[in-house]
Amino acid sequence: MADLAHDASGPASSEPTGIAVTQANRPAASDRGKLRVFISYSREDLKFADQLDLALNAYGFECLIDRHGISGGEDWKRPLGNLIREADTVVFVLSPSSARSDICDWEVEEAARLNKRILPLNCRPLDGMSPPPRLRERNYIFSMRSRSYRAQASAVALRT
Predict the structure, then answer these.
(1) Closest CA to 130 of 156, 101, 106, 152
(2) Among 41, 58, 127, 144, which is least packed by CB within 10 angstroms?
(3) Which H or E element spans position 103?
(4) For the chain, how many structural domains are there in total?
């Protein structure tokens, strides 16, 4: 099945799409100048986010992800807010679990408050769940599991 980009009113195009992800560490000197992508995801989509991270990194992006630099018991909002602030673009991994996550919703709101570009990447059917309000009118990138992660990353790369 082909991946489709669409908005809330239905399919907008039939071009293939995809995704990718990397790390949230401070950039090394060699990474300065790379486009920085924050990956927002639900813990249930961890494997998908990890694959996205690897694929986007292969395309030359610096990915920011929340598993690095936030210690247990630490206030998570400040470090997450800093990662979002440092990003050029936010890729929101959209799934039923991220659609119902208060933390994911906060990340979308923070990205919007900071005027960040937000790319919703639908990794699983929503099964009747509504995406966060700020994403409802946006054009989605659909990722089909049959597509390679590299192909998915290229679709994100073309839209960033």
Answers:
(1) 101
(2) 127
(3) helix 102-113
(4) 1
Give the integer Cα–Cα distance in Å for 58 and 21.
9
Would 48 be classed as within a structural domain? yes
In whole angstroms, give the CA distance from residue 49 to residue 117: 18
Give residue 54's domain range. 16-25+33-159
Whole-prediction pTM: 0.72
pLDDT in tens, 25-61: 444 434 567 899 999 999 999 999 999 999 899 889 9
- Assign 99 to helix, strand or coil: helix
Tokens of 49: 């986010």
Give residue-wise pLDDT tens across range 74-102: 888 888 999 999 999 999 999 999 999 99
Whether 9 maps to a domain, the answer reads: no
Residue 6 in any domain: the answer is no
b/e burial code for range 78-117 (CB count within 10 A of at least 16 → b): ebbbebbeebebbbbbbbbbbbebeebbbbbebbeeeebe
What DSSP designation does 133 have? G
Q: Which amino acid would we find at residue 98?
A: S
